[in-house]
Every structure is written in C-alpha cells, then in structure tokens.
Structure prediction request, 433 residues.
Amino acid sequence: MTLVHNNSVSAFQKAVTLIPGGVNSPVRAFGNVNDTPVFYDHARGSKVWDVDGNCYTDFICSWGPLIFGAGDETVLSAVKQQLDKGVSFGAPCMAELQLAQKIVDVVPGVEEVRMVSSGTEATMSAIRLARGLTQRNKIVKFAGNYHGHSDSLLVSAGSGVATCGIPDTPGVTAATASDTMVARYNDAASLEELFAAHGNDIACVIVEPVSGNMGVVPPEKGFLESIRALCTQYGALLIFDEVITGFRLALGGAQEYFGIEADLCTFGKIIGGGFPVGCIAGKRQFMEGFAPVGSVYQAGTLSGNPVAMVAGYAQLSKLQQAGSVFYDELARKCSFIASSLRTFCAEHEFPVQVNNIGSVFTLFFSSQPVCNWDSASRCNTKQFAHYFSSMLDAGFLIAPSQFESVFISAAHTQEDCEAFVEAACRALQRVPW
Ligand code: PLP
Prediction:
C-alpha cells in the first residue's frame, strides 16, 4: 500500500507559513523521519482518519491520555453535559473537588492536589515548591528524562529535545542551567556522587519512574528505592513525574506499581481525558507550601477548568471501575506485541532491543541493551526512520522519533495488535541493516 498524502502536504505547506515549523509542538514534526506530518481529520476508538481520507490504527494515543481510545463515550457525555453548564468559571466548582478526591483516593500518599493546565506547569511548580520549602536552589534530574519545557528542566532532556538534538536550549540562561544537575538514569551511584558533593544545596530530585521520553526504559531493580533513600537521607524532596505513568502503569501509577511513595508527584494529560490538564499532588505538609496557605506562588486562570475536570473525572472513574483486570489486559496486549517482535528480530538476527512495561513499549535500533540515555542515544535513528515510513505507509501511526513510547489503549483489539506485528515485521525486513 502506498498512501496518498496530497492534502496533508498542502496543509503543511500552508502551516509552515503560519506556525514555526508548521507544528505547535516539535514532537509532531516529521523532519527526523524525512516526511511531512499527517494532518488528522477525526478519530474514533483505535482509528484516526487524515485529511486525505486515509485510515490509520493509532499507537500514539495523543501521547498517552487516550487510554480508552479516541472519543470514549463516557468522557464525551460528561463533557457534553458540562458544556451547557459553563465552559470556564475562573472560580471554585464542584468538578474540581470530584477530580481531586479521585486522585487522593487512588494514588498512594497523596493528600492534596493543585490543578494546572499542562504537565509542564505541574513539574515547574513542583520544583518551585521544593525549592521554596527546602530553601535550597539546586535540583537533580536524569539525562534523557523529559519533564516539559520550563527552563530548569530542559537541561539534558529527552523527547523532542533529544529528537531535535538540542541538549542546551538557547534562551535558558547559564545561571538557570547551572542549578540543574544531571545524573544517569539507572545509575544510583551517579546520584550519590551529586548528593555527596552538593547534598545541602539539593532541593529535590525529579524522575520519570519509568522513563518514556528516551523511549521506554524501565527502572532497574533497586534504582527507585535508592533515589528514595538518598532523598530522605539528605532532606531533599523526591518528585515522581507521573505524566506518562500515572493511571497508566497502574491505577495508582508508579507509586502503586513499585510500592514507593514520592513526596510530590505530577500528573498530566491522562487526568484530563484528552483535555489540557495537569496537577501537582502530594502530602499535605508539602502541598500547603503553595499560596494562599504558604508563600510559594502558583496560579492559573484556566486551572481547574470545569470541562477538563469532568472529562478527567469521567476517565479516572471508568479506570477505577475497570480495576486491575483492565491494566492486566493492556499489559497483555503490549507484551504480546513486544515479545512477538523480539522473537522475530532474534530469528532474523536484527540488532534491535524491545523494552516494554505495562502498556508502553519502544523498539530500539541498537545491538546493545538500552538502560539510560547513553545507550538510547547510540540507536540508529536512520534505521528508525525507514521503519517509521513503512509503518506509516502500512497504516500505523507511531511517534515520529526513536525516543518516544508506543502506547496501547483499551480500544486496540487483538486484531489491531496482530496487524501491527505483521506490519512491523515487514517494515523491519525493509530496513537497510
Ligand atoms: N513530564 C513527562 C514525563 C512528559 O512525558 C511530558 C510530556 O510529554 C511532560 C512532563 C510535559 O507535559 P505537557 O506536554 O503537558 O506540558
């Protein structure tokens, strides 16, 4: 099959004259896979239709939030009801309470929640809170982890920053960057060294408990436990950035899955059912550092937007009702795809690694195991681009970058998963090894 993209191509030609690079988020650009982006028209369940009328099976899922697939009826009906009641209040409303209560009920250790409008705002505010509470300036993040695009967190970031190859973004001052220290993912000793040298200056450690933004890299045994212990030892706050893992790895996110409690955690997209939402959550003693109780300022006109709140509440309630069998089924589909690809590549001696956990996986074009940014960055991105193009042409949407996750939703049928495996095997045979 060779799909025709004429309408997408002409839309993109217009887009580049109106929007930098034609996209409102660099990860949507197809530059690294030598193509022009597909312009979506509509989506339902596991399918997306583009402006040329092509139909794809979608394994991007809006970069995670669409855990039930596109156009979930429960979410849609909550949104439709709210539209008649009001789309924006800029004032307290009951929908905020419902969503906050849901998060408090299911995420271990969480007592209070502050709503924002994106994952970026959530992590930016969480580190401000940590700095305010500890009266310390430095923070630690891990190379290849992505926490949104606030200045302090762009240092050595994954996702689009890694895809575009801009580790030190112009516009972030040297002074800001120097307060962000970088450790190696899955290497607790590298964090220990930073604490040994700067322990009294470190306000917090922020980590993706499962790294999703250098591609999927699960934590090795003991890694998260070591971070927890070091933070406690040195009086630094531990922040789990659960923008990807939250309500996806398990209902209670990575904290439930790994049995480790962070001091603060951040959630994004998935808690809005596809609408723009994020939140900072954690123990009362820390959360009450935020104004108006405490003096760490944090605000937002659209924070707690009622449409986003009811969408999120509908989605999280549905997840809660579905229970652990739901998560087991997502993981089963994901591991079916991952293990099928692993077996096929082993038989053909293709040098790839397949990392999977829960409902996310990444196929890395590397002969070596991928456990941190050093190993992820050695992947062959040209081979990935060949694979991506074949998958697109076969009608499968995956992120146009080696350094992202493939997302499985409840809308993916076993047939979708088998078709994905078949297409991926054909695509892999066409890669110039
Ligand atoms: N943190 C993580 C782990 C993410 O994956 C992302 C985005 O993908 C963010 C933070 C930033 O969220 P947003 O794009 O909503 O600002």
